[in-house]
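Q: Here's a chain of 293 amino acids. Please give me its 3D structure as C-alpha cells.
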Amino acid sequence: MYKNNGFSAVNYISFLFDSKDLSDLIDRFTACTVIINEDNKLISGLNQKVTQENDTKELIASKKLELENLNEENKSKLNEVNEKKASQEVVKKELEDEQSRLSETITQNEIALISSEISTIDSSSNRTALQNAVTSIKAKLPQFTMAGAINKANDYISKGNEKIASLPVETSPPASSGSSSSSSSSSSLISYSNPPSQDRIARTLKVQATAYTGDGVTATGTKPVRIPSGMSSIAVDPSVIPLNSTVYVEGYGYAIATDTGGAIKGSIIDLYMNSESDCKAWGRRNVTVYVLK
C-alpha cells in the first residue's frame, strides 16, 4: 500500500473500493490511516538511525584522522627527541674528549715544573744536586692538582732519596779545610728561607707587585698556593717572565710563575696570598725579582 516515505495511492484506493459497505469502508480507512502512520513512524525511525549511523561513521572517521595525525606528530616529536639525544651524545663525547685533552695538558704542564729536577735525579750522582732536586720537588708539589703529576713527583722524591741513600758516605776532610768545605757544601743546598745565591740568579728585574687571592686554577692548570717556607704562586706577563719560571721575590719569597692576568702587563706581577687581609697588608710595592736558573 505504500512505498519509501509514503504509501501507494492506487493500492490505497483499491483497498477502499473493496469495502462491502460504509461501515467496512470506515474501518478500512481507519486501518489504512493507522498502518500508514505507524509505517511512517518506523520509516522515520529508520531514517533517523541511518542519519545517526552516518554521523557516527563521520565522527569515527574524524577521530581516526585525528589519531593518525597525532601518531604522525608523535613520530615527528620522537624523531626530534632522538636527533637531540644523538646530538647531545656527540656534544658529550666532544666535551669528554676536550676534558681529557685538557687534563693531559695540565698534567704535562705540572710535570714541566719539575722537569729539571727529574733530569737531575735521573742523571746526577752528586749528593747536593740530588738533595736540591728532591727539596725543590717537595716545594712545588702543593701546587699540583693532577694525579698523574702528583704520582710522578712522589715517585721522583722516592727515587732521589734512594739514590742519595745509595751514595757512599763522605769521609770527613782534614781539620784545616773542613770548615771551608762544609760551608761550601751547605751554601749549595737550597734553602727557601734565604735569598738565592748569586750563582743561581739568571736575571734581576725591578717590578711593581700587587696581591690577589681566591679559589680556582692558574693559567697553567695548577692550584695557586702561598707557602712562605716553600714555593708560592705568582701571576706574570709571560713576555717578561716566562710561565713556569722559578723566581725569588723580595719580601715574598720563592715562587713559580704559573698564572697570568688581564692587568698584569709589563713590569707588574701579582702575588698569591691566602686571605684578603694578607692582600691588603701587602698592598702595592716596588720590589726586586730574581729569575732563577
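Q: Can you summarize the key feature?
A: The beta strands are 2-3, 6-7, 201-212, 232-235, 246-249, 253-259, 268-272, 285-292.
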